[in-house]
Specification:
204 residues; alpha+beta; 4 helices; six-stranded mixed beta sheet; STM4215-like; 19% helix
């Protein structure tokens, strides 16, 4: 079974699928050329190798990753589970060739392109994820916590939206033998050679 991190990334990618171009399985008004998982630098520059490997030339695009930092919280009485507070990171990339302004504001309104721009993509992503439980057992709501402009001009515009998310961190299930009883012995305090005087099993 896949990990909670992987399940969460996959659920977010599914939730953002309507933003894909219809020819790629998205909605009728979709415009993204890619919605993919990502494991590179979360503040990449335009020439970043991991970024460009995952994009494969797609633009505009959205990349999804679990954040770099997480903190563990309250532990249950059974010491088998605790809270993990982490982030879900969404990188938004536009390589619109017209201008830095077109990368941010889009070029749809004048009829010359189909890239709505970073601003609108950010709003659409936030609208689909804000306050949503992604249907993954043990994962809570996604709450937007930060919006960061990583690179505005040049070859690509890159922004990042961060979402806070709480999830369950569970201890691995016990795989050994389970005991159903314990043996109790009554010993002679004055003569060790007589031990045990009596024995009995107690069911657990």
């Amino acid at each position: 079974m896949s990990s909670l991190f992987e399940q969460l990334e996959d659920a977010v990618i599914t939730a953002l699928t309507p933003l894909l171009l219809s020819a790629l399985g998205g909605g009728a008004s979709g415009y993204l050329e890619a919605v993919r998982p990502y494991q590179g630098d979360l503040s990449p520059q335009a020439d970043d190798e991991d970024l460009n490997r995952v994009l494969g030339g797609a633009s505009p695009a959205v990349l999804v990753a679990i954040g770099d930092d997480g903190s563990y919280g309250d532990v249950t009485l059974s010491r088998s589970m605790c809270d993990l507070k982490t982030t879900l990171e969404v990188l938004i990339v536009s390589a619109n060739l017209r201008s830095p302004e077109a990368k941010a504001r889009g070029d749809v309104s004048d009829g010359t392109g189909d890239d709505p721009g970073i601003y609108e993509i950010m709003e659409d992503v936030r609208g689909l994820l804000f306050g949503v439980e992604m249907g993954v057992d043990g994962v809570g709501f996604l709450i937007p916590s930060a919006s960061t402009a990583i690179q505005r001009g040049g070859e690509k515009a890159i922004w990042r939206i961060s979402f806070d998310v709480d999830m369950d961190a569970k201890k691995a299930a016990y795989s050994g033998d389970y005991h159903t009883s314990i043996r109790q012995s009554v010993n002679n305090a004055d003569d060790d050679t007589a031990d045990p005087i009596a024995q009995g099993d107690i069911d657990l």
